[in-house]
Amino acid sequence: MKDDRRRESFLGRTALVGVGFTEFSRDSGRSVLSLAAEACRRAIEDAGLSRTDIDGVVSFSVLNDSVATQAVATVLGLPELTYALDMNLGGQAPCFMVMQAAMAVEAGLADAIVVFRALNGRSGIRVGSTQFHGPAGQYRYPIGFSAYPQYIAMWARRYMIETGATYEDLGAVAIAQRAYAEANERAVIRAPLTSQSYLESPFVSDPFRMADCTTEVDGACALVVTTLERARDLRHSPAVVRGAAYVLGNRSGLDIGDALLWKDYSRNYTGLLAKALWDSAGLGPTEIDFAELYDCFSSTVLFGLEGLGFVGRGEAGGFVRAGNTALGGRLPTNTNGGLLCEGYLHGMNTLAEAVLQIQGRSGERQVPSANSCVVTSGGMMDGSALVLTRA
Amino acid sequence: MPDVKQEVTEAPPPITDRDSDPWWAALYAGHLKLPRCLDCGSTWFPVTPGCPECGGIHVELVASTGRGHLYSWVVINRALGQSMSADAPYTIVAVDTEEGARMFGRLFAPSDQPMRAGEPLSAVIRTLHGQTVVGFERAIS
What digits encode the pLDDT tens for the residues A306-336? Predict the structure, then answer.
């Protein structure tokens, strides 16, 4: 039975060891290739490795907005690759990329793999306003239904209808994350946000206001994946890949923005992969110290809290409003300010924050006993998740 | 190319395909149709060359009554592109038709009455910025 499999081949035996960022900005003035190379170079150095130790590169792009792993390997001067993977995905990819890299190093296909996301997401190709070429776009673009703030608002509205969640519940997510962003120099949105200023701000696509939406940025982020055995000898303590799951739900549509065939807009993929994720880790929600939940929009945090079983159906808004996701709360969540504040690196930075927290390197926003966490990638029909722990 | 600045385009004519061409042809002729599986009987949208419920390959287009119920909606205050921006604010509805398909449409002739999940709506075929589209009207006005 697939559901009973512990995936022991790579779980508990692989780890994330290095983190690299470029600056996040509204106009980098640089090529995507130069951003990608900088983030990878920094991640390799941060791990305590050198370019000659790296023999695998994994990345993803959407709408052809990034550069090939081949190009990055060339620019970094990597001797040769024995593993390279270029995926055509969006925000569902980061945890899934780590799964691929972890399987590859565990299988002996490579020793150390750098995984990255790089894009000029603000000054170049903007996912938020570029048309997908898939076969479902013809039913939405001509009516002016054409971007993620609109698609996911449709889901948030249905969630509000079914659970009684309110604008204040959405706002509570944005406000809680803004408090973290004030302590994060990398975040591009850091001005304080109050309940009053949130509610007084205009709608972008009702029920979303600007503060409910991620902000597109230029930048890159990279991580290094290797075996736990190798990781123990490196510069920082390893973030062990303890649990992992990916799911593409039934009737998931014709492109990554197409929800016409998806039946229930009040639930996303997180509920579909939760059991496999927790079973694979041998841990449950009560044993998790903090969470980094994909938040292209505020509502997806509520979906993630409920889908993964941290709270019951319709309870996520109250959970956030009561301060449980703040530092010192029961489940500190999106401790970098999330994609809402740090910027839209498609969840690669969400994963990087999890690694920094597990390694105890998050400074003012460090969770005191950050021994275990859950990370998610994706907001709608498909996505991936990891459970990371200290060694 | 990842480094090329991409401008927000005006809504171009829909990129149709060989699967959807018959559906658009019917729409241009004033008929709203939906794909139905001859094997399991389920009806869905959009047009696909196989049944999402049973994988059956015998798909026919059947007439829809156009009647349905409101599943969800979004009010778009900030739109993309010049022509859509001129329309803003406008409402996009997700409607479950009585045949069992979900469709998106522009809400035409909105009223001041608050929107209510489950309320009845009827499909209309309209021209929007030069393009034939499916829209919906509220039964409650």
Answer: 999 999 999 999 999 999 999 999 999 999 9
SS3 B109: coil
Does the ipTM exceed 0.90?
yes
| Rounded-to-integer distance, Cα A112 and Cα A99, Å | 13
- Pairwise CA distance, residues A187 & A301, whole Å: 18
User: Are B92 and A125 an interchain contact pair (Cβ–Cβ within 8 Å)?
Assistant: no
**Chain B residues near residue A138 by CB distance under 8 angstroms:** 14-17, 20, 24, 46
Cβ contact B1–A64 (<8 Å): yes
Residue among A32, A129, A142 minimizing CB distance to B3:
A32
CATH ID of A2-126+215-390, from 2.30.40.10, 3.20.20.70, 3.40.50.850, 3.40.47.10: 3.40.47.10
Architecture of domain B66-141: Beta Barrel (2.40)
Provide the percentage of residues in chain A whose pLDDT is more than 90: 93
> Omega before A207 cis (within 30°)?
yes
This prediction's pTM = 0.96
Answer yes or no: is pLDDT of A81 > 90.
yes
Contacts of A153 in chain B (CB under 8 A): 74
Chain B from 47 to 76: CB within 8 A of any A CB: 48, 52, 71-76
* Structural domain boundaries in chain A: 2-126+215-390
Residues A23-49, mean pLDDT to the nearest whole number:
97
User: Within the 2-41 window of chain B, which residues sit less than 8 Å (CB to CB) from chain A?
Assistant: 2-6, 8-9, 11-17, 19-20, 24
10 Å CB burial of residue B67 (0-12, 13-18, 19+) is: middle
How many other CB atoms are found less than 10 A from the CB of residue A76?
A: 17
